[in-house]
Amino acid sequence: MAETLVSAWGKGRDALKAAGVASPVLDARLLLEKAAGIGRTTIITDPHQTLTQDAWAAFEALIERRRAREPVSHILGRKAFWTLEFEVSSAVLAPRPETEFVVEAVLAETHKDAALSILDFGSGSGAILLSLLAMRPLATGLGIDVSDAAVAVAKANAEALGLSSRARFEVGSWDEKLSGRFDVIVSNPPYIASGDIAGLDPEVRDYEPRLALDGGADGLDAYRALAPAIKDLLASGGVAALEFGMGQADAVAGLLETVSLEPVRLIQDLGGRPRVWVARHAQGPDCKSLQAGKKTLGNNGSQR
Questions:
Q1: Which of 7, 27, 43, 56 is deepest in the core (most CB within 10 A)?
Q2: Same domain membership, residue 127 and residue 24
Q3: 5-18 and 24-36 helices, crossing angle to 10°
Q4: In a domain, 84, yes or no
């Protein structure tokens, strides 16, 4: 007997639930949509539509990949973040909802018509930088990532979103010397302690790039490199927003303070956990100077 959309969805859900997948209902639906080439509306309005043999076979194959704990975002090749959708692959960390607080923090500190120059350290898929550029139409940005493959993904996302004229992505590390100053510096760096990676969920441990996860013995290696780089590159009156992991708020604040950066606002995620530090130069003017009418900074940070 041929499978219908609703029966296939139910079988996929049950298979994923038995495999210990955290969200079997949603994941099965998303994979069914991909296999059958349909949207969510079709499943709701025509649940008894019969699947073709090819679509059923494709769905079974996708379910098997998810049962092996391959992330849905990797299987689909895309992930929603902020108000946009991004191409993702095994080369980049799939953007997380908690990272949206970095975007939110910067938007709260800047005017919508400000001509900002933004630097994103460890840009990965480009989700943070491109989301900010989408919300700040006069801004330009530079994303730096150590991975050639990640930079390729970010460039593809910039092109797909129509932002490539204002975004540049380059291969490099956060302790490399860049010239000029940036109004905004953001980062979601690796912050998992090396010894903790083995205990992560299979979706993360086995499929996400270790470069984007491993923060060294205590998870703070990236911040030790980032703090002095941010001090050197942040414009007077500029703002930095950094994501960090559980239990790291005080340590990250201390590293910022050692280079005369002042943590001015601590943002919690939806679970009530400290997640993002907003910082500025300790002796600099208030961050609210990032208003419309500033001189535009070029993508390399130099004023033009």
A1: 27
A2: no
A3: 130
A4: yes
